[in-house]
Design goal:
The protein is of the alpha+beta class. The protein contains three helices and six strands; from the N terminus they run E-H-E-E-H-E-H-E-E. About 25% of the residues lie in helices and about 30% in strands. The protein is globular, with a radius of gyration of 14 Å. It starts with a strand and ends with a strand.
Length: about 130
């Protein structure tokens, strides 16, 4: 498994649940495709619900990473796309709850005009080192 070190973030960076840089050594790199969802893990509709979509996407990413020999703890960077800037703080809260140990991936948060299907409000892609 690769070694992952997190550069200490400023108070602002910590409050926004991301690291300014993540340093890796060894391991294998896993490039995660962008993930979206309109249903939660039980199949219930979560169309238009940013928090529910973010939580479900993180759960799906976790499952994919487990298949690769890792977990979300191996995620070193993510690019997050939202279709409304008002979802930014909502997403940051979910990310903080997901990475409870404060070892946050580096991240970009980008607002886009739309997604491939109505009801999708967020997409997350990432890179992990396992």
């Amino acid at each position: 498994m690769g070694k992952i070190d997190y550069l200490e973030g400023s108070e602002h960076q910590k409050s926004r649940a991301f690291s300014p840089a993540v340093i890796t050594e060894g391991g294998k790199t896993v490039w995660l495709a962008g993930q979206t969802t309109l249903v939660d893990e039980e199949g219930a509709s979560i169309a238009g619900d940013c928090s529910a979509q973010a939580r479900t996407i993180f759960a799906l990413m976790e499952k994919t990473l487990r298949r690769c020999g890792g977990t979300l703890a191996n995620l070193v960077t993510m690019t997050v796309f939202i279709n409304d800037p008002r979802y930014g703080d909502e997403f940051v809260k979910v990310r903080g709850q997901t990475f409870k140990d404060g070892r946050f991936p580096a991240s970009a948060l980008i607002t886009v005009s739309g997604f491939s299907r109505p009801g999708i409000v967020i997409e997350i892609q990432g890179v992990a080192v396992v």
